[in-house]
Amino acid sequence: MQNGQILEVTAGEGYLVELSPGLISDAPGLAGRLSALLGLTDPSVRAVIVTDSNVGPLYAGKVEAALEATRPGASAGVITIPAGEESKTPLELVRVLEAMASLRLTRKDAVIALGGGVVGDLAGLAAALYMRGIRCLQMPTSLLAMVDSSVGGKTAVDLEAGKNLMGVFSQPVGVLIDPEVLRTLPAREISCGWGEIIKYAGLDGDVLAAVRTELGPCRSGIAPLPSVGLIARSIDVKRRIVSEDEKESGARRLLNLGHTAGHAVETASRYALSHGASVAIGMHILTKALVKEGKLPRAMLEDLEELLRQAGLPSSIPPELLARADLDFSIDALLAVASHDKKSAGSGVNLVLPIAPGRAEVRKVSWEDFRAMLETGL
């Protein structure tokens, strides 16, 4: 791994995103960062670790030991949720809040979100709600969480109607990233993270060039681990946009490239599709539709398809899911999900549309036009 990097996010009170390879295994180094970020030299301050059933056995013990190394009693314990999107519910959120209350956490205490995107979203929301808000430190362990969900302060759980419909903007006090933990992830999770990295490639020419370089040698369709430099480049795109538009009233909408159609597909699959795979399909739907309408060159679609193939991501809904009688991927079903999406705007929807390699823009599209794009792009 390469040397670490530090990026500053100026949203909220401002915080740092620190990429430090090997940090979780460096007990003294981790203890020092936790103490500094959470103020653990104060004997009345504690931190609780929120993690999941996959990540907890691997890393929760190391983080808890680092907390205790700063000061005996600094750890308030570990709260573990079942791994998977199915845990990102109001019911599980309340269970975590009740566990936090049973530990007698106070407003001076903090939450450490140790895990992937589900843990980061749920633990971040729990921290924002508990006693009207306590601090949260994000420690993402999945590629998707590192490059995307841990940065920017979006916290949420899902409702039956759709993803992330119950949440608040609440910036963390910091983000600590140890890229070495990616080595324990299965190939599916690495590909999932590449879905968001390729999204950033659709927004930034430098990221696009870096993605082409790192995926270029990949012929097997099994995605490689991205370099620390590419992880940092991806975060930097989000950092710049979030610092300009914290609560998604303007430029931050660009970060939803591929997400409107992608969230609809993801929800319709009942989360059989990963988030990254769903975003990949969403980007492909829009690009394919625009190419068929003559608004984009075919080379852009071919380039996207090649990057998705190299990253081990689908460009369309897999046949085995389309064949399932319990899943409905009809246009009407996808539109019904999309109508509940946060990007819905009454008579239409705010779509992020690619306009050139490494460039996209937000346009309000009528529901009739969005239907036509789904029909053309699927």
TrEMBL record:
<keyword id="KW-0170">Cobalt</keyword>
<comment type="pathway">
    <text>Metabolic intermediate biosynthesis; chorismate biosynthesis; chorismate from D-erythrose 4-phosphate and phosphoenolpyruvate: step 2/7.</text>
</comment>
<dbReference type="GO" id="GO:0003856">
    <property type="term" value="F:3-dehydroquinate synthase activity"/>
</dbReference>
<feature type="transmembrane region" description="Helical">
    <location>
        <begin position="110"/>
        <end position="131"/>
    </location>
</feature>
<keyword id="KW-0547">Nucleotide-binding</keyword>
<keyword id="KW-0862">Zinc</keyword>
<dbReference type="GO" id="GO:0008652">
    <property type="term" value="P:amino acid biosynthetic process"/>
</dbReference>
<dbReference type="InterPro" id="IPR050071">
    <property type="entry name" value="Dehydroquinate_synthase"/>
</dbReference>
<protein>
    <recommendedName>
        <fullName>3-dehydroquinate synthase</fullName>
        <ecNumber>4.2.3.4</ecNumber>
    </recommendedName>
</protein>
<dbReference type="InterPro" id="IPR030963">
    <property type="entry name" value="DHQ_synth_fam"/>
</dbReference>
<keyword id="KW-0812">Transmembrane</keyword>
<keyword id="KW-0963">Cytoplasm</keyword>
<keyword id="KW-0057">Aromatic amino acid biosynthesis</keyword>
<keyword id="KW-0472">Membrane</keyword>
<dbReference type="InterPro" id="IPR056179">
    <property type="entry name" value="DHQS_C"/>
</dbReference>
<dbReference type="GO" id="GO:0000166">
    <property type="term" value="F:nucleotide binding"/>
</dbReference>
<dbReference type="GO" id="GO:0009423">
    <property type="term" value="P:chorismate biosynthetic process"/>
</dbReference>
<dbReference type="Pfam" id="PF01761">
    <property type="entry name" value="DHQ_synthase"/>
</dbReference>
<dbReference type="InterPro" id="IPR030960">
    <property type="entry name" value="DHQS/DOIS_N"/>
</dbReference>
<keyword id="KW-0520">NAD</keyword>
<dbReference type="GO" id="GO:0009073">
    <property type="term" value="P:aromatic amino acid family biosynthetic process"/>
</dbReference>
<dbReference type="GO" id="GO:0046872">
    <property type="term" value="F:metal ion binding"/>
</dbReference>
<keyword id="KW-0479">Metal-binding</keyword>
<feature type="domain" description="3-dehydroquinate synthase C-terminal">
    <location>
        <begin position="193"/>
        <end position="343"/>
    </location>
</feature>
<feature type="domain" description="3-dehydroquinate synthase N-terminal">
    <location>
        <begin position="79"/>
        <end position="191"/>
    </location>
</feature>
<dbReference type="GO" id="GO:0005737">
    <property type="term" value="C:cytoplasm"/>
</dbReference>
<keyword id="KW-0028">Amino-acid biosynthesis</keyword>
<dbReference type="Pfam" id="PF24621">
    <property type="entry name" value="DHQS_C"/>
</dbReference>
<keyword id="KW-0456">Lyase</keyword>
<dbReference type="InterPro" id="IPR016037">
    <property type="entry name" value="DHQ_synth_AroB"/>
</dbReference>
<comment type="similarity">
    <text>Belongs to the sugar phosphate cyclases superfamily. Dehydroquinate synthase family.</text>
</comment>
<keyword id="KW-1133">Transmembrane helix</keyword>
<comment type="function">
    <text>Catalyzes the conversion of 3-deoxy-D-arabino-heptulosonate 7-phosphate (DAHP) to dehydroquinate (DHQ).</text>
</comment>
